[in-house]
Amino acid sequence: MKQVKQIFLVAMSIAVLGGSVMAQEEAPRMSLSFSESCNNVFRHYCVAGGHETAVNRVLLILKERGEKITVKLIKRVARSTPLRSYTPPPKPE
Asked: If you write DSSP's letter for every residue of 66-84 in order, what string do you get?
């Protein structure tokens, strides 16, 4: 009976600790789909390089805020983003 109680306590502690570790996992990050990016096979609204990266970053921020990414929005953001805009380096994971 004493061994059963010990096994039960060990199993419960593992379950509690495992649950707390799972609860601390980071939420999945959003990303732009193929059709939502500035340059793809069908359209080229951005200058390749820093401009494209900056526009895609702005589009990702708008998507995280809940806006629907449309072709009209992509054109507007691409035209309003300066060609030499600063793009922060990617965050290490």
From this structure: T----HHHHHHHHHHS-TT
d(CA 38, CA 76): 11
Any idea where the domains of the chain sit in the sequence?
30-84
What does the block give as tokens for 42?
């069908």
- The model's pLDDT over 65-75, given as tens digits with 9 standing for 90+, comes to 999 999 899 99
Per residue in 6-47, pLDDT (tens digit) is 888 888 888 887 777 666 666 667 888 888 888 876 778 887
Closest C-alpha to 32, from 5, 13, 12, 58: 58
* Surface-to-core class of residue 47, CB atoms within 10 Å of its CB (0-12 exposed, 13-18 middle, 19+ buried): middle
Give pTM, 2 decimals: 0.61
Contact 69, 63 (CB under 8 A): yes
Nearest-angstrom CA–CA distance, 58 and 56:
5
